[in-house]
Amino acid sequence: MAASSLAALEAVASAPRDEPRPVATPEPAADDTFPKLVLRHATVRGDRPSMREKEFGIWQTRSWAEAAAAMRSIACGFAALGMQRGDKVAIIGDNRPQLYWSMLAAQCLGAVPVPVYQDAVADEMLFVLDHAETRFAVAENQEQVDKLIGIKDRLPQLGCIVYKDPRGLRHYRQDCLLSLDAVQEQGGAFNAAHPDFFLNEVAKGSGSDLSVITYTSGTTGRPKGVMLSFDNLISAARLSVAFDRLNANDQVLAYLPMAWVGDHLFSYAQAIVAGFAVNCPENAETVMTDLKEIGPSYFFAPPRIFENILTQVMIRMEDAGLLKRHMFRYFMRLARRCGVSILEGKPVSLTDRALHSLGNLLVYGPLCNALGFSRVRVAYTAGEAIGPDIFIFFRSLGINLKQLYGQTESSAYCCLQADDDVKSDTAGPPAPGVELKIAADGEIMYRSPSVFVGYYKNPDATATTLTPDGWVHTGDAGVFTESGHLRVVDRAKDVGRLNDSTLFAPKYLENKLKFFPYIKEAVAFGDQRDFATCFINIDLDAVGNWAERRGIAYTSYTDLAGRDEVYELIAGNIATVNRDLAEDAALAGSRIRRFLILHKELDADDGELTRTRKVRRGTIAERYGDLIAALYSDRASVPVEARVAFEDGRTSVIRAELKIRAAAG
Amino acid sequence: MRDTVSPTTPPLRPIGEVLLKVEDIRLSFGGIRALDGVSFEIRQGEILAIIGPNGAGKSSLLNVVNGFYRPREGTITYKGKPHRGMRTHEAAASGIARTFQNIALFKSMSTLDNIMTGRLTKMRTGLLAQALYLGPAQAQEIEHRRVVEKVIDFLEIEAIRKVPVGKLPYGLQKRVELARALAAEPDLLLLDEPMAGMNIEEKQDMCRFILDVNDEFGTTIALIEHDMSVVMDISDRVVVLDYGRKIADGTPDEVRRDPAVIEAYLGVAH
Fold this sequence. Notes:
Shape of chain B: globular
Largest sheet of chain A: 5 strands, parallel
Shape of chain A: globular
Helix content of chain B: 25-40%
Strand order of the largest sheet of chain B: 6-7-8-3-9-10
Distance between the termini of chain B: 42 Å
Number of helices of chain B: 10
Number of helices of chain A: 22
Oligomer: heterodimer
Radius of gyration of chain A: 25 Å
Number of strands of chain B: 10
């Protein structure tokens, strides 16, 4: 089975090479909103799966007809509750069919869904709900309802909280609180009383209407509400569906935050345009098992997840027996040599090809199967640069992993790599329908039909980002390579210079460091300094496992992170990175001289990472200013005291003495 | 938890009839009087905590209730019927389930299989039918699995469904043990130190699960616990034992103020 799936991948990779890429077939103009498209699927492929959710250990399938029916009853229920055109509806929770249907239902009535990060702390949620003036909130469960009730006093316009999962909520006595089941029941009655209402409301919608407001993750400052119209999202979805030949038979796992534009494109816009099935995991902890069970054909993950998967594979291989370890090493060496060429249909010697087939039988096939990648036809990563080694690892296994570049403001993508034109260090050429240019100061700018309408209630930000003739300032620095691909260097404002004017691109150093399974996160410093230094976050799983095998006892993350043995381990990793850097004349100056291992994991709850897990340099520089100062002094250690915020708003304090070490190389 | 409920809320759960009545129980091991004339009752739907210093006879009392120990004297009335010599399997069959102070799970079996053993008393097909997976056995197994999956969902242990229990951290093993007891769909749930050895977060989770079980399924719960803040938070009534005798019985507030309890716990200068 594994061999045949690889053959299928090869077929895909080597398929139409010289033929022109199929362009998007224009759909009937009538289907210019998501509700209209869903109604069409319900008539064309009513019994085909639209969503699956694992409940009580069994995957439950909902067809397009069921999805359309749910959308209708929820929409009528919302109408009965008084939802008006233009109302904003917060959607808060893990990926659940009912929440996707609630978004559709709101759109049926001309209301605008505002998906919110489900792990947002109450204050972050307050900002978004207040700014978006949401009148309704659809929450997944008690946890989210508790957060909403906690901030409701400060949200006068929030009239109604609807919850999906009644567990634990039976004794709540708030007037504004009711279950989604009750909403659907009211919807049934409303629909019976006003049989024409629903279709009339859906027909009122048009492509230029506002479809969704998604708040940016906010690496700098407060999140901004990006307004996207149906035309924006549907054109983005149509073009990308055609580009990758996605169709109604594809499968995708919806496991990334619903509030993130990527999920909105992959699990919502593309799924509704192409008619493929969206699978919702049982819960956040079972994603890897669910991935394996579903075996998606279309998969997206940010680099961090690919890094984690690779780390897990490496941990498990270190625990494996001698024979397996040798086999894995041998065949992974082989895969590095010829795996990517085979995937891309390039000439490979007969011996390598034969060995690769054997490897496929013994290692690559079973490994892909264990990871849930056996059926992946198209996989993407984006969000930030992926370590080239990580990228090539997956491609050499025969997984058609590609890169894209995009933003919330562009309805998720600007650049896409084609199956026959994949590079590890670029984001691909401009996607169909997208014009892209590099401004004089190096900033990437683009224009496309999917460019956002504007920032909600923020004309100043809109004016500085969106030019009058439709170009968008990305804030990212980039260059075009000789092959016409875009290479994103860094956030434009993060790229700096050392005092000896060596180029300093922190992300580049950090990505190199993060390739080591022991390093989960790194933050590099060096702009306007004499040399480069960094903070390291160790990976508790990987380092914990490493420590266990060496009989090193530890009590907690902080304890483990501070151990001399761990410092030795990390120093070794940094020395390797420094050796690499030394080979490149332009970067030799940015070798890392000193480092420290942080006593706690950088966390989105503490504001150190965004909800999409990107480093917030400003916050970190501010909060850990004394640590950075110590890195640039000659001290051997620095005391630290940190306040840790929990999701429920409680805080506690961690105290530690952090060691600072010099790095070799 | 409960503090999110407004003060005007009517009582959460109706506390009903007496479910279990224990009268004048005496139990000795050799010359040691483990229980010396203990009487108390558990009402339908309540959460009763049994507390007391080490060696006060708390575990012995649970063991008497579920038939593991035979008391020398005294009567136990369960669901209105006297049960002086109820044996463990009879207790289990009549709706009493329990967890143990030291986890008693099958370490090399998966979480799922361990919880499935909680259904044992409800399996109605024979060994042969089960081994051959005949029609009725199959139908029953599906039904049992359905109940087990509900429990897994309830206790949020989906991610460890297939993991051998021996590989799980302690806190999760405790949760699996609770799951196995719940799989028996008990009327009376006996928990012997459900939170021993847990960290604060695990304790909070466990408290929430105990309250949820009581709330969702209406299960009557008797638990032994050392952590006083837990006891005061979640129980409707507290029975205090000391040297095999009951020294107090009342609401958490009453017990907290009871001089006999203060003496037993803190000692009093004479």
